[in-house]
Design brief:
Chains A, B: Pfam families: Amidohydro_1. Two copies of one chain form a homodimer. Chain A has 15 helices and 17 strands. The first copy, chain A, has 464 residues and is of the alpha/beta class. A five-stranded antiparallel sheet of chain A has the order 5-14-15-16-17, with no helix packed on it. Chain A has a four-stranded mixed sheet with strand order 3-2-1-4, with no helix packed on it. In chain A, strand 11, helix 8 and strand 12 form a beta-alpha-beta unit. In chain A, helix 2 runs parallel beside helix 3 and helix 2 packs across helix 14.
Chain lengths: 464, 464
């Protein structure tokens, strides 16, 4: 039980300083008239916001950030897998790193579309769960699954292509997920398992349907990549004879628990489908730029009433887990796609998308995503005396449109404080830095054999 | 005289650890075989790069960052000027702030397109010069001048518009600049005055020609905004019957000392003119997104051999002075404009644009912009053990594509150390924060009267 005192909070037309009382992990009162109960937390010159959601990432990509070639997704993926000698220790460290960077940029929830080590699938999941529990961040671990091989993800065009069968059957894959749910899914403790087929490019209908069944059986969130690239748009046409969204709706994958990463290449009809199925778009602006995927039509989604949240995407395609950066760029990048400034996203709308939009996409908006009495205390307190947030103007404008540095003073998840005075209190970040340093080497040039093999076909099919 | 030991530097195919000897403000040697001379600086786990150039900003905009409406440039400017009650003290503080944020994000040179307080023009310039001297950053103070009133900057379309005459004559304006040159221009001490008409939208030919004459007489750099918005493209057609670039070439404003901010709306012929006049494009990607100006065709400039550098632009349209952010976004944003990834900018190219490209645009490439023996010691040492740059991969890739936080360990300008162990050594940044806090207030809503007056005409002319 504690009281945050003198915190600046946004009111409809202004800001006010108030007290916020937290009991049993929830917001019990918000008013300057409250008595101080329990520990008093001094929030002078600090802004209180609901925690944001890093709604799409792949934690283990942290091991290759900074070094991936300037490639579009399909070739980039080939390079990523050529140099991904993952082990359990690395999975653990990069999950810690992802949690810490997310926390220190305003996120209190992370959705980890987790790459699994073949043969050690459950151990990989267990390791990520352990890391997130240790840090104390709210986590949705969404094991990345597929039942087709990498080359199947590139359109064939007029060529004849055959792909190696995937090494594991659809049912065996679904069994792993069900076991993970039984072992680790525990929403009340902040750890959730989500079903998360990679995307239409590498997954059969049977896999999507099996995931939807698990979702219904255990009330799990559904996640997937969707139409990130032009190649995928082309592939969907080849594979289904319709758009990927039309197909996913037909096979029953889309509902209010479904969040879809990227959504760059959708038709107006697709957008209407997302709206009426209450699916959520996870906007990953930085990876969409870095990989040249395109600018997702977020202004259209908002106009159509589709819920939108923000993700950093994996750190190899970004190459960071700074959620505030994703929110800034993901807000202003659309101003060049629609010349009418009356449609542009304001900083106050961005914050709502990052918090309540994120919670809605994870089917937890009843309990999270805003400063309302009764909601869970997933909260972040920002230090407004950081040079990067001065001089004083509109705190939320500074936070969203500026480049905040060292601004997260405190963070709580489920009412438990896990950042204090700018430092993570649950794990030793200096120690984490030492471990990341020890497990890595500086390097400059590398060549991906698989990317080189795929490149000629890719250029041909994409008309380059 | 000092020796930086064990610094990581980029070689053509890799990185190597080496010693760098600095004497008399210049790089005197680069080799692991050198003897240590003078003070020894330990650069273990640190990357050494030439300092970058923040090639376009307006320091006093810092006072309105975070609060400006989501407006296109023309309306945004109206709001900016409605709420700009500048005084000399504020000019001083925001120049300090701009210098510090630039330094702590890798910049050792700043180009301040400085807004002048009417009636206190020379005092404004003197104040900015004082601030930059105190911090020790290399500065190009480019007083922002015009000889037409704000409303002249919006195309008339089919309407009849008249504008108030500007309050000061062209010659009086040029006289101020010449006096500033005589008083403050001192390249060897790191302070330069540049001629800098606002842009074609608010300046007569006489002003441009007068500036070119001053540039020839005193060997000054020439600066200006150029074709930032569609409205300006339209206006140039109305005003000149040709493009702005064709007109500026005709009146003799373009040469190897000319740097032009934005350059979003240029024709292929315009690009060829920039190439053969050896003019420099200053890329301000963040303000171009925030104001919806567009994505400058930087890949085309590079292919045409036009020199390109990076700027943060004023902090009201960005809303930060983080140069590394401008470099990142200004590099990856083009990947969505050209689908062929072979044209995309690599991190190593970005660093060259930010350092050597910046120096070239300021006619100082002979002495700055790269790690070469004989060049001035404008250097930055990055701490590669920051969590944001771990795990270790390609240091330059991490720096450019990541979201570096607290990474500038040391910086030198002219061989003088002005950042040490992550802290600015020349001024008291805590004190600066206090002053910025003291001189400002949190606020949320405001309404610009002038923007409201201009809006109807703007929407009509721009077809909104």
């Amino acid at each position: 039980m504690f009281t945050i005192e003198n915190a600046l909070i946004a009111t409809p037309d202004d800001y006010s300083s108030t007290k916020v009382l937290i009991t049993d992990g929830r917001i019990a009162g918000i008013s300057s008239q409250l008595d101080t109960v329990g520990t008093s937390i001094n929030a002078d010159n600090k802004l209180l916001l609901p925690g944001f959601v890093n709604a799409h990432t792949h934690s283990s990509e942290m091991w290759q950030r900074g070094i991936m070639s300037m490639f579009p997704l399909e070739l980039w993926l080939a390079e990523l897998y050529d140099f991904a000698p993952l082990d359990i220790e690395k999975v653990y460290l990069s999950a810690l790193g992802t949690a810490v960077e997310t926390l220190l940029s305003g996120g209190t929830t992370v959705v980890d579309h987790l790459v699994l080590i073949p043969g050690k699938e459950l151990e990989t999941i267990a390791t990520a769960v352990r890391a997130y529990k240790e840090v104390g961040i709210r986590a949705f671990v969404a094991p990345l699954i597929q039942d087709e091989s990498l080359a199947a993800g590139i359109p064939s065009g007029d060529t004849k292509q055959t792909h190696e069968p995937y090494f594991r059957s659809t049912q065996a894959t679904l069994d792993i997920i069900e076991e993970a749910v039984k072992k680790f899914h525990c929403p009340e403790k902040g750890i959730n398992i989500a079903v998360a087929p990679t995307g239409i490019q590498l997954c059969s209908d049977a896999l999507f349907k099996g995931c939807a069944e698990l979702s219904d059986k255990y009330d799990l969130c559904r996640h997937s990549h969707l139409l990130e690239t032009k190649a995928q748009e082309k592939l969907a046409k080849e594979k289904y004879g319709c758009t990927a969204v039309e197909h996913l709706e037909r096979i029953g994958y889309l509902d209010y628990r479904t969040s879809l990463a990227h959504c760059v290449h959708l038709t107006d009809k697709d957008i209407a489908i997302l709206a009426h199925t209450k699916s959520t778009v996870v906007h990953n602006p930085l990876s969409n730029l870095r990989l040249g995927s395109g600018i997702a039509p977020i202004l259209k989604y908002r106009q159509a009433g589709v819920n939108v949240s923000f993700g950093c995407d994996g750190a190899s395609s970004n190459d960071s887990q700074d959620l505030l950066e994703a929110i800034k760029i993901g807000s202003i990048v659309h101003n060049v796609t629609d010349f009418d400034y009356q449609h542009w996203i304001t900083p106050h709308q961005s914050v709502k998308m990052a918090a309540l939009g994120g919670a809605t996409g994870l089917n937890m908006a009843d309990n999270n995503g805003s400063l309302d009495v009764g909601k869970k205390a997933d909260l972040v307190l920002y230090d407004l005396t950081s040079l990067s947030l001065l001089p004083r103007t509109d705190p939320i404008g500074l936070l969203v449109l500026g480049r905040p540095v060292n601004v997260v003073d405190s963070a709580w998840v489920n009412g438990k404080q896990i950042v204090k005075s700018g430092n993570v209190t649950t794990i030793d970040v200096q120690d984490l830095r030492q471990e990341l340093l020890k497990h890595s080497q500086w390097q400059k040039s590398r060549k991906s054999k698989t990317a080189a093999e795929l490149e000629k076909h890719y250029r041909f099919v994409m008309g380059l």
